[in-house]
Amino acid sequence: KRSCKDKNLSIAEISRRIQRNIRCSAARDRINARCFRGGDSNHRDEHRKANDNLQECRRRLAEETSKQQQETKEFDNTNQIIQNSLIAAIILGKLAQILFSPIHVPVF
Length: 108
What we know:
The chain is mainly alpha-helical and 108 residues long. Helices cover 79% and strands 0% of the residues.
């Protein structure tokens, strides 16, 4: 398969399909030039389809990569919030121990 219309494709699969479309387009270009004096309408159509698929896959790759970067950023932000909350809880716990521990006053 060369199309990237399926919404459930991984970045790796989109990359593979980009390579397939590059190879397909180049092969069709060579065949059209050598065998069909530029290609008849059907061969030119198939060459155009390969190039259209290539552009669609490149667009999807950019979209999915951007989405993944955003998800990573959001995950990092969430982890930072959790880490800061844990640090604050530890500090508050220590502060509570200090404030509410019995005071031992020496007797003279």
